[in-house]
Amino acid sequence: MVVSPVSPILCFFSIYIPSFASPIAPHTNLSLSLVLVLSPLYTSLPFMGAIDVAAIAKTEGESMVKREEERMGEAEYMKGVRHLCDTGVTKVPNRYILPAPDRPHIVRCGDSTNSHNLKLPIIDLSLLHTPKRAMALEALSMACKEYGFFQVVNHGIPSEVIEDMIDVSKRFFGMPYDEREKYMSSDLRSPVRYGTSFNQIKDRVFCWRDFLKLSCQPLESVLPFWPSSPADMREKTSAYANGMKSLFKELMSAILESLGVSMNALSEFDDGSHLMVVNCFPPCPEPNLTLGMPPHSDYGFLTLLLQDQVAGLQVQYKDEWVTIDPVPGAFVVNIGDHLEIFSNGIYKSILHRVLVNSLQNRISIASLHSMPVEKVISPAAELVSESSPKRYMDTDFTTFLKYISSTEFKKKNFLESRKLTRTMDQTTEGQLC
Ligand code: OGA
Ligand code: NI
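That's the 2-oxoglutarate (2OG) and Fe(II)-dependent oxygenase superfamily protein sequence above. Prediction below.
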């Protein structure tokens, strides 16, 4: 029996600041051939003695040539940054250069003596099965309120499963472009999507990232669509995806308990959406000019992030960007927009971004989890009372898609748009702020 892959597949799980994300002009073959035809005419003008005209024409000619270069580059940029690096770039092309205010200020990223590095709370999950459970839940609750991010250790995912996932991801991005290209798709509903930047059709400034997005729900139906090379990709990745699903459910059970919310919600995650994003950030010749991922918040309940030993993730903490040093064997977990809504704002979905560096390739695997896409997310009944009114409107995936396609969304705008003021709560609930 042929089972159709997941209903709507969440590839828009993250919300990005698009101060540098807007549509690029479409290119036509006509404009390209016009440049080619006109260029010789301009270069011959100086010999006609028309100095002023020639100077203007020369400038125009140069800019047309430049535009042509950009257009030729454009096709190359669409192939991704791995491909760009393979061509031997020594400078960051304009397409990737952020406006000055959006650039990172890199202060020796990865140096643990650096005050910009943050030690996230580390939650020892093995304590959840001991008499110290209450203490572990308290630490978890504090981390979710104060940082929106934490790391987990003793999580029960075998180190072999983790190492195999990193290893197969490296081998996937190490394959020739022709192999990777097979999985490129502009169809947001495709269960497998290879691409670059955030939204390569829309981004005005590209990010220094290539990605492979794999929908994981339901696993047996989507598996046949996943890459067949490297040969062990499906086997290693599905073992990892299964591990992430059960870790997510264990974490959600602890989080519901820490919030004092009924465990009934837990079953909603059994068939919940699950998207895996394998990120590759190649070394970048000028890492101060660009970002691996722009500031964004994640859309779902929780994101479980596996990073290799190369630092790059930064989170916003007390209005500063701080680097999260990788802890061997740990997962970084962060609260997504859905959990902020569900917890009625008690737990926070925090902006984060990725720096690149000039020396090392970086691999990360983000597993994004939520309830099924058709499910409406609203603040949990137990967390709403007269003294603590509902702070967010009910939210579903369709509203989110409508929102991002109708607005130039910024930072955490979507979440902001779901917020209710006290007055609105009483009077105009259900409308956008
Ligand atoms: C993401 C993400 C961080 C990283 O994929 O949404 O935030 O360090 N990744 O790769
Ligand atoms: Ni993210």
